[in-house]
Amino acid sequence: MPLTRLGLSNPVAVAVGCILLVIFGLLSLSRLPIQMTPNIDRPTISVSTGWRAAAPAEIESEIIEPQENQLRDVPGLQRMISTASQGRGSINLEFDVGADLNRALIEVINRLNQVPRYPADASEPTVRVGSDQFGDTIAWFSIRPMEGNDRPIIEYHDLVEEVVKERLERLPGVSSANPRGGRPFEVRITFDPYQAATIGVDLTRIGLALGENNDVSGGFREVGRRQYTLRFAGQYEIADIENLVLEWREGRPVYLGDVATVERTMRDATGVMTQNGGPSISMNIISEPGVNVLEVMADIQETMAELQESHLEPNGLYYVQVSDDTIYIRQSVAMVATNLLLGMSLAILVLWWFFRRLRATLMVALAIPLCLCFAFLVLDSVDRTLNVISLAGLAFATGMVLDAAIVVLENIVRQREMGRAPLEASDRGAGQVWGALLASTATTVAIFVPVIFLQDEAGQLFADLAVVISAAIVCSLLVAIVVLPAASYRLLGDAELRDRHGHWWQAVTRRIMLLTDTPRRRWGWIGGLTLVPLLIGALLIPPADYLPEGQRNFVFGFLQTPSGMGPETAERELIDPINERLRPYIEGEKEPKIANSFVGFFGTGAFMGFRAENPREVDRMMDIVNNEVLAGFPDTFGRANRSPIFGGRGSRSIDVNLQAADFEDLLEAGQVGFDLVQRELPGATVRPQPGLELAEPELRLRPDDRRIAELGWTRGDVATLIRALGDGAFLGDYFDGDRRLDVILRGESWLTPEEFMAMPVATPSGRMATLGELTELERTAGPNQIRRVDRRRTMTLQVTPPSGVPMETAIEILQQQVEPAIRQALPPDGVVTYRGTAEALGETLRNLGGSFLLAIVILYLLISALFRSFRDSILVLMTIPMATVGGIVALRLTGWITGQAMDMLTMIGFVILLGLVVNNAILLVYRARDGEREGMSRREAVETAVRLRLRPILMSTTTSLFGMMPLLLLPGAGTELYRGLAAVIVGGMAVSTLFTLILLPSLLRVNEEKQPAASSEVVPA
Question: Judging by DSSP bridges, how do beta strands 185-191 and 740-747 pair with one another?
Answer without folding.
Answer: parallel
